[in-house]
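Reopening: Ribosome biogenesis protein NOP53 still failing for me.
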Amino acid sequence: MAAARRLKRVAASQPGFLSLKSSDSTETLSSRRKRVNKNKKKNWNKHSDINDVEEFLEDVRLQEKTTGGLLSEKSDDSLFFLDVGQSNEAEQKGDPVEGQKRKGKQSRPLRIDLILQHDSRVPPPKDVLAYQQPNAKKLRRIAQKAEQLAAKGVVPRRHKQLRNTRLADRTAKKAVTEANNNPERGYYDLWGQETKESGNSWYLQQTGKKLVKRPEKLNEKPSVLPAVEVIAPGGSYNPDFFAHQALLQKAHEVEVKKQKEEDKIEKKLAFNKEDTATEETIFQEQVEGLVEEENDEETDRKEEEEDQPIGAIALAEKKTERQRKREKSDKIKEQRRLAGKRQTEQRQQLFQLRSIKMSIKQQDQKTKAKQKLRKAKQEAQKAQPRRLGRLKFQPQDMEVQLSDELAGSLRQLKPEGSVLKDRFKSLQKRNLIEPRERAKFKRRHKLKYVEKRAFREIT
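Support: Ran it again with your exact input. Result attached.
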């Protein structure tokens, strides 16, 4: 408190300090103070007089609130003004003429607005938390690194993308809105699949509003076959003779192919009837036996082989130093011989450049021919159904009528096949669904038969 009172006395003694509130500071200073021992803490608040310090600080706060600072620090021009009376321009204007509105009249603010206004000239305290940023140290390090790269002339990838998008936006022409009553205006399909993306592509990508790019693989059809295959001209209700005969020939080839496959399977499963066992052969086998007796010589030889030890270990004799040196020199000579042979072969290849070029050319031709065949095979494979499940695709039987079954009009035409089955087979052939078969009913539990009481009474 002594330091505060000393500060107050020093400020009050200065000639430039002006007090807005009247205070009896002179009387308090002149009054005799009571001497109290302040070595103990309990006497500090009890006998300490801080009213003069509070009054001084309140006066300073009042000056800062009303004038924005201490009056001693203000200049004379900001505190006083010179009153020279009414100006000449105001006298010349005089009172306004009747019927004319008064110009230049300023509208005063409402009383409620004046109450809500901030009347203090003291600036609000600075909010330290408002200036704090999360990860400020990391962001400062990134900014310093960016400045170093910019000094070296290196542009970051993010800035390149932003610059490219801005250039693209500038070069792109703005769409001119046309009038609704313009007959030449383009037709807009309300139910179309296309979506219009408005805004910057970079902004849409970063905010997650941009649609994901559809993979090109999904745009490819699973098969090149058409959805509806048109039947040959010979399948009409009143076909041409030659077209009908061509269709019959095609159906005949299909049936012949099926018959060949069946014959092939039967041929593999066929057996000779002479090889079948009869009662006589079975009796003879039971009596005589199937295994013949072995000769005595063979049995003696097998016994000798069994007596010999299996997997006997042969101990190798230890080589002398002279033998090791000879083997080492022979190994070096063989390596030198192979190296010399390799060099002579390389020299001989220089004289065979023409034949080598011809062989390389032939090999390239063969590889190109194989590539063409492979590509043609792949193109032909696109029209064939793929293996999508455990079952193999079975083509539908050809719908063809014989010559005596032809009708001359649609009224007499007999329907062939089923439209539902045809569509189902078409989906399988175009690889849209896997080949299926009708599910077979399989009983989970066995049937249990129970005799009823009424049945027992009757029997």
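Residues 2-75 form one domain. If you still see a failure, please send the error message rather than a screenshot.
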